């Protein structure tokens, strides 16, 4: 048993869910944005107010404030929220969670949860989303999933392989009544990254954040070695990491 296996599954989930505040800087450096086409497919036409739920450091929030007059970013971690406020001052950033949003009832045209819905308790989060949304509003869920079809991305995945709650949830997100059936669509895209940004992306993963320091540093060293030696990445200032953004939208009946 490794040190990372010391938690029972529910304890590990809780520890991972609350880990990001301690790594807000690497999260900001390493996590990718989202393709505009995905955001536009999820965003209802004429939206005036949207909630960015579990907004983190504002990766999605940046795209929303360009498209919607009013954006409320809800983020439970104080350190992540501090980074978000600096990065996206146009949004209103508030403490809260999917299960308890500090937002008036029937006030939002859409609720976005980017890289976040796998952390929620759907039995509480679904009715809370229904409370906040206007009739006909959209619950918009999206995840960036690494595409391992290229050799170097597959080699990276072998190093950082871990049970991925986000990947499982992104295929079939838990929503249900009172929402209409979920619509799904995927968007393939490529994210150019420096070597340091790739390392930061790995370092920002919850299970890596919660590893003992020696194990974490050993894993990041393997990532650096891959980048320095793989034919697709060695000697290159930037490398292309392919992604698929998995999107789901569920409409609250009018």
Q: How are the SSEs ordered, and which strands pair?
A:
Layout: H1 9-17, H2 24-30, H3 36-42, E1 49-53, H4 61-65, E2 70-74, H5 78-87, E3 92-94, E4 108-114, H6 122-132, E5 133-146, H7 151-160, H8 165-171, E6 183-194, H9 195-203, H10 206-209, H11 213-229, E7 238-251
Parallel strand pairs: 1-2, 1-4, 2-3, 4-5
Antiparallel strand pairs: 5-7, 6-7
Helix pairs in contact: 2-9, 7-11, 9-11
Could you characterize the architecture of this molecule?
With 254 residues, the protein is an alpha/beta fold. Helices cover 38% and strands 24% of the residues. The protein has eleven helices and seven strands. The protein has helices at residues 9-17, 24-30, 36-42, 61-65, 78-87, 122-132, 151-160, 165-171, 195-203, 206-209, 213-229, and strands at residues 49-53, 70-74, 92-94, 108-114, 133-146, 183-194, 238-251. The chain has a seven-stranded mixed beta sheet, sandwiched between helices. Helix 2 packs across helix 9 (195-203) and helix 9 (195-203) runs antiparallel to helix 11 (213-229). It starts with 8 loop residues before the first helix and ends with a strand.
């Amino acid at each position: 048993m490794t040190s990372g296996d010391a938690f029972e599954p529910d304890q590990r989930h809780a520890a991972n869910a609350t880990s990001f505040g301690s790594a807000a800087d690497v999260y900001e450096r390493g996590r990718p944005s989202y393709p505009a086409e995905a955001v536009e497919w999820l965003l209802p036409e004429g939206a005036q107010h949207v909630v960015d739920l579990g907004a983190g450091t504002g990766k999605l929030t940046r795209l929303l404030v360009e498209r919607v007059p009013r954006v409320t970013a809800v983020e439970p971690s104080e350190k992540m929220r501090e980074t978000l406020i600096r990065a996206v001052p146009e949004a209103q950033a508030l403490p809260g969670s999917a299960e308890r949003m500090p937002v008036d009832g029937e006030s939002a045209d859409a609720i976005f949860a980017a890289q976040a819905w796998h952390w929620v308790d759907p039995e509480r989060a679904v009715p809370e989303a229904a409370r906040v949304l206007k009739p006909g509003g959209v619950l918009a869920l999206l995840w960036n999933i690494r595409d391992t079809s290229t050799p170097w991305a597959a080699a990276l995945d072998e190093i950082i392989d871990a049970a991925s709650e986000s990947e499982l949830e992104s295929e079939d997100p838990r929503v249900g009544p009172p929402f209409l059936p979920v619509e799904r669509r995927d968007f393939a895209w490529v994210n150019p990254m420096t070597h340091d940004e790739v390392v930061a992306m790995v370092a920002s993963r919850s299970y890596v954040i919660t590893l003992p320091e020696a194990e974490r540093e050993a894993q990041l060293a393997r990532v650096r070695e891959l980048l320095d030696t793989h034919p697709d990445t060695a000697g290159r200032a930037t490398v292309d990491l392919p992604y698929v953004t998995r999107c789901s939208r569920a409409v609250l009946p009018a």
